[in-house]
Amino acid sequence: MAIPLMLEHPSSLLKVSEGIVIDDSDYIARIAESLGFNGNYTYTLTSMGDKHAATMLCSISSNDGRVEKVVIKRYTDIKIAKWIALNLWLLGIGRSYDVSPYIRMRNEYIGTRRVRELDRSIRTPPILGISFKNRVMVFKYVDGIPLSKMIDELMNGKDYNNSNAIVHNTLEYIHSYGSILALVHVNKFVLRDTKPSNVLISKNNGICLTDFEQFTTLKSIHDASWDIACFLYYSLLFTKDYDNARIIIRAFR
Amino acid sequence: MDIESMPHKEVLDHAADIKYCLPFYPAITLGMIKLVREELLKVI
Predict the structure, then answer these.
(1) Which end of chain A has a smaller Cβ tally under 10 Å, C or N?
(2) What is the pLDDT of residues A204-228, one digit of tens each?
(3) Of A148, A221, A237, A244, which to mutate for an interface test with B (greatest number of B Cβ within 10 Å)?
């Protein structure tokens, strides 16, 4: 007699406020099932992000041509090395990042939901599944351009008189991000990892914040100051264009 | 919490603190660091 699923995998009974618990070994099948794929489907996995990232884009396709894209983020031990290295890097300035995969997952889950709830204009990727056992979270894929790419285009462009539509839009997004960051701080939260590459500009012109691994509560105003400094310095790395840099800083503040 | 109750000037003052640019040096030039700090302090 087959063992009922709930006895074999008691964690399948667990409920979370957003998404489903995917402690099964074949968690992609569970996600596909939750998205309405029954039986015949295939999926492909593609690596996303930088070489330290453990994030994969999963495209699930059914025979009738339906395609759904989800993002699978793994909280691996290899990434611990990245955060330890960053902590050593920040030792001198009294800042630190969370290292434990479980704490980073907790931050991600809470941050993704709490920041979205601050204002209707703020978007974060919808959570589809979470598994502390597999150390994995699955999000709905958000199609968008990273703000870092838009800033690079602005910095590499010749036109800094704001007449160019790309420049104008980029500055508006930077300003909006500054306002969102202020709202996050006022609500006593901090993002800590405010790289412009963690901000996506989606096709419908919405700003979508991603990567909340270091999200936490604001403990001192120095935390908020680091969010601001981190965003500005990251935005202006390897550039010598002072005119455009000035425009970016003024748009942000 | 009211947005006005956040000590924005103090936050920006700390953001302009020289120590926060140290992790990014030399990937960011000294001139750029000076510019960021000046622009932040202008708001205060």
Answers:
(1) N
(2) 768 999 999 999 999 999 999 999 9
(3) A221
